[in-house]
Amino acid sequence: MAGLSDLNNAKVNPNFLHSNSTSHTWSFSAIAELIDNAYDPDVAANELWIDKERIGGKLCLVFTDNGKGMDSATLSKMMSFGYCEKAKYENQAGPKVRMPIGQYGNGFKSGSMRLAKDALVFTVRKESQTASVGFLSQTMCADGNMDTLVLPLLEYTLPNYILFCAVK
Questions:
Q1: Per-residue pLDDT averaged across 70-87, rounded?
Q2: Name one GO molecular function term (predicted).
Q3: Which among 41, 95, 111, 138 is least buried, having the fewest CB atoms inside 10 angstroms?
Q4: pTM recorded for the entire structure
Q5: What HEC string does the chain produce?
């Protein structure tokens, strides 16, 4: 008898990134989605910056917050579909407690892919002295003629002097 590990996994076609992004009829709702992510209580950010920068000759929107960062497992879930851990904050209501906004694990993907074909996420987790980088890319999948979405992700340990500069 076959076990669960013998079953096929569901796959996501890279074209879904674009079709999913069309839930945002204009760019500002996509930007609002990304702002909401920084506002959630598990992020613990109290400042958010949105800058327009030219990187490698391309115009980019850069979202930066001063939250607590993510480890690679959390970043992987954020960049995957349907993972949401915000329900654990629902019962913590109080006068100064932020309530989570998202609940379906789709906002980052729909928002970022409405604004661009690629999203590169850098995050520093001071608590574990790690940094993670994740890449959600329609371009990479199209250029590689891929029929399944892939998610390059890297986590590394930061030396103390870099950690101090990054989270100052």
A1: 85
A2: ATP hydrolysis activity
A3: 95
A4: 0.81
A5: CCCHHHCCCCCCCCHHHHHHHCCCCCHHHHHHHHHHHHHCCCCCCCCEEEEEEEECCEEEEEEEECCCCCCHHHHHHHHCCCCCCHHHHCCCCCCCCCCCCCCCCCHHHHHHHHHCCEEEEEEEEHHHCEEEEEEEEHHHHHHCCCCCCCCCEEEEECCHHHHHHHCC
